[in-house]
Amino acid sequence: MTSATPHGDPSDRVTRAYREAQTVSSTEVRASDAELSELAGNWKDEAIPDLQRSVADVQLSNLARGVVDPVFASLAEALRRVEEPRFSILDAACASGYYSEVIRTLDDRPIAYTGCDYSAAMIDSARAHYPDLPFSVQDLTALTLADLSFDVVLLAGVLEHIPEYRRAIGESTRVAGRYVIVHRCPTTTGRVHERTIGTQYNITTPRTFFSLPLLRSEFSAAGFELIGTVEVYPKRVSWRRRAGELATGWRRHDSRGTFTLVFRRR
Question: Which of 82, 89, 132, 218 has its CA 20 to 30 A from that of 183?
Answer without folding.
Answer: 132
